[in-house]
């Protein structure tokens, strides 16, 4: 099975082409946030250099969020359109889980973090169990204080990776020696790991319905919902 | 069976609050034109919220592609090119169409043609009748008000544009004061037909020696009139307010267009863009054009005045013939503009 894997959830861009769990080609860029310009050329280049044509692909695996709204939209739009136009499978994977795959350690809790600004984070808690990664606390957009509350009940070491800078001091005050700061390379998504993980997951049943995992309403919608708590928010888009 | 090779463009439009994909045959025949509109969603907020718009586009995009191909009864193998709006518009909205179009072009080895959204509005005219050159276009929409001179089919030169608000923007703001939700163009137009121009609002820049427009003064005069009446508890006729506002807009648009046609004699005048659906404006231009015996008026049909991908396909086929191509690096250009007419050409 030929797999194309894509992660542009945050500033880094990572794309890989795999043949089952064998890596054929991978590019990871961390310098620019120019996904609109760079994503398609990188995909074209890697597929070509893997001696494949687009039609040879069997499956697309995409990190669908959380992350920067524009970033996850670029990856998901590209991935769902590739799957739809080529009639191939699409697998969606949490961007936080993809980062957690970088920490290959047993008996620790893995805590990937994306900065959500103002002491808020997009985060989740993961661990390895018998060679399989599993979710301990599901991905969410949450205030640091509340998050510390949630993870207080676990007594294992907690490895933080990703946007750790703004949270490290406060987390250390709460977790003391249980806090381990991951290595910088562990905070950069790897599309090869994403592709490998995506190989074992089942594809979505409806490609058209796939949307990014924003984990957060837009401000306009959140304000509106407060005023209209019982309104059905579906069917706002009509084909005319 | 059709033995003549068909030119088939798959076109994308996602610059604002409509996700649209179309299949256009030979540049002028609509085989399909799927439009998913988000108006209902943004009405909750009284106007388009960019982040919400981007989110809706991504929900709709692949479904629209499939529907467009199905309705046109064609497959990817039948296509000649892919065309896409890359600006102007909302960057997050544009990027969905641009990304999807780049993917389709790559996946099926098709040339990708970048299209200016306003060229699309103008080329909607072509879906009814061939455009004859030189031509002039008055493009009026929620985001734009400009006079575009076209000496040849792939040359677009601005000769005048709004200095502040677009005409459609003024309609929405005035609509809000009258208690009308976005998009206010049609309801204000309907209200205006029941009233008279009793307020005589200012016609900004109408007598200036250029082709530029300004609507912010008119908008302020309107708002001040309503607020003043509120303060002294006077009730003004909504119909007359709408009629006076519309008359001022139409006067300025029509007068500037007249002057432009005198300076640049053209074979065709095209009225395009969302506000081109305005009945008052259509009637006035129809009347004015009687004085220009050699200029034919081309009113873009109501169904194609709003944003749609059919118009992008119509412009895309023309641009493709003239060699316009984009590669996989194509980015959205939210501030994209036509060039101004150069002085020596005047
Ligand atoms: Zn438009």
TrEMBL record, chain A:
Domain of life assignment: Bacteria
InterPro entries (UniProt xref): ATPase_NBD, Gcp-like_dom, T6A_TsaB
Positions of the Gcp-like domain: 31-151
Gene3D superfamilies on file: 3.30.420.40
UniProt record, GO biological process: tRNA threonylcarbamoyladenosine modification
Cross-referenced SUPFAM superfamilies: Actin-like ATPase domain
GO cellular-component term (any): cytosol
Annotated NCBIfam families: T6A_YeaZ (TIGR03725)
UniProt name for this protein: Gcp-like domain-containing protein
Biological source species: Lentilactobacillus kefiri DSM 20587 = JCM 5818
UniProtKB/TrEMBL annotation, chain B:
Catalytic reactions of this protein: L-threonylcarbamoyladenylate + adenosine(37) in tRNA = N(6)-L-threonylcarbamoyladenosine(37) in tRNA + AMP + H(+)
Location relative to the cell: Cytoplasm
A molecular function GO annotation: iron ion binding
Signal peptide per UniProt: none
Annotated keywords: Acyltransferase, Cytoplasm, Iron, Metal-binding, Transferase, tRNA processing
GO CC annotations on file: cytoplasm
EC id: 2.3.1.234
Gene3D superfamilies linked: 3.30.420.40
EC category: transferase
Keyword flag Ligase: no
Single GO BP term: tRNA threonylcarbamoyladenosine modification
UniProt xrefs under Pfam families: TsaD (PF00814)
Binding site residues for substrate: 139-143, 172, 185, 189, 278
Known cofactor(s): Fe(2+)
Function: Required for the formation of a threonylcarbamoyl group on adenosine at position 37 (t(6)A37) in tRNAs that read codons beginning with adenine. Is involved in the transfer of the threonylcarbamoyl moiety of threonylcarbamoyl-AMP (TC-AMP) to the N6 group of A37, together with TsaE and TsaB. TsaD likely plays a direct catalytic role in this reaction.
Protein name: tRNA N6-adenosine threonylcarbamoyltransferase
Organism this protein belongs to: Lentilactobacillus kefiri DSM 20587 = JCM 5818
Gene name of this polypeptide: tsaD
């Amino acid at each position: 099975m030929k797999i194309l894997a894509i992660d542009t959830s945050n500033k880094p861009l990572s794309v890989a082409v795999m043949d089952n769990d064998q890596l054929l080609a991978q590019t990871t860029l961390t310098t620019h946030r120019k996904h609109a310009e760079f994503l398609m050329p990188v995909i074209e280049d890697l597929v070509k250099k893997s001696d494949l044509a687009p039609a040879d692909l069997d499956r697309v695996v995409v990190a669908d969020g959380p992350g920067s709204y524009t970033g996850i939209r670029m990856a998901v739009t590209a991935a769902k359109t590739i799957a739809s136009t080529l009639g191939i499978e699409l697998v969606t994977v949490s961007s936080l889980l993809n980062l957690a795959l970088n920490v290959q350690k047993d008996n620790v809790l893995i805590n990937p973090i994306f900065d959500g600004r103002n002491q808020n984070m997009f985060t989740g808690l993961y661990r390895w169990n018998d060679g399989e990664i599993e979710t301990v606390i599901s991905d969410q957009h949450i205030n640091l204080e509340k998050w510390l509350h949630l993870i207080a009940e676990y007594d294992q070491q907690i490895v933080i990776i990703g946007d750790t800078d703004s949270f490290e001091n406060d987390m250390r005050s709460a977790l003391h020696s249980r806090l381990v700061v991951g290595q910088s390379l562990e905070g950069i998504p790897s599309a090869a790991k994403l592709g490998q993980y995506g190989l074992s997951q089942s594809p979505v049943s409806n490609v058209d319905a796939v949307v990014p995992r924003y984990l957060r309403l837009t401000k306009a919608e959140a304000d509106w919902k407060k005023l209209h708590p019982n309104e059905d928010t579906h069917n706002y888009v009509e084909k005319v | 069976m059709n033995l003549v090779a068909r030119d088939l463009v798959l076109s994308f439009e996602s610059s604002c609050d409509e996700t649209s994909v179309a299949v256009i045959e030979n540049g002028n025949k609509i085989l399909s034109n799927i439009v998913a509109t988000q108006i209902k969603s943004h009405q909750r907020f009284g106007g388009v919220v960019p982040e919400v718009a981007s989110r809706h586009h991504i929900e709709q995009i692949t479904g629209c592609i499939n529907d467009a191909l199905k309705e046109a009864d064609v497959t990817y193998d039948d296509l000649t090119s892919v065309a896409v709006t890359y600006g102007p518009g909302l960057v997050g909205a544009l990027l969905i169409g641009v990304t999807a179009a780049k993917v389709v072009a790559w996946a099926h080895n098709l040339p990708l043609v970048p299209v200016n959204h306003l060229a699309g509005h103008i080329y909607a005219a072509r879906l009814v009748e061939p455009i004859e050159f030189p031509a002039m276009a008055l493009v009026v929409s929620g985001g734009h008000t400009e006079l575009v001179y076209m000496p040849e089919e792939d040359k677009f030169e601005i000769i005048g544009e709004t200095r502040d608000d677009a005409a459609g923007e003024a309609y929405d703001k005035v609509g809000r004061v009258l208690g009308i939700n976005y998009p206010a163009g049609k309801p204000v137009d309907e209200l205006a037909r029941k009233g008279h121009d009793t307020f005589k609002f200012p016609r900004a820049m109408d007598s200036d020696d250029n082709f530029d427009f300004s609507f912010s003064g008119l908008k302020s005069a309107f708002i001040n009139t309503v607020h003043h009446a509120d303060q002294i508890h006077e009730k003004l006729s909504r119909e007359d307010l709408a009629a006076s506002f519309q008359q001022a807009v139409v006067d300025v648009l029509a007068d500037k267009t007249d002057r432009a046609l005198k300076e640049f004699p053209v074979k065709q005048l095209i009225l395009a863009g969302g506000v081109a659906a305005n009945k008052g404006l259509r009637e006035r231009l129809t009347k004015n054009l009687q004085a220009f015996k050699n200029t034919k008026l081309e009113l873009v049909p109501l169904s194609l005045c709003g944003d749609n991908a059919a118009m992008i396909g119509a412009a895309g086929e023309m641009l493709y013939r003239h060699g316009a191509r984009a590669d996989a690096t194509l980015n959205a250009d939210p501030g994209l503009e036509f060039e101004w007419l150069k002085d020596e050409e005047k």
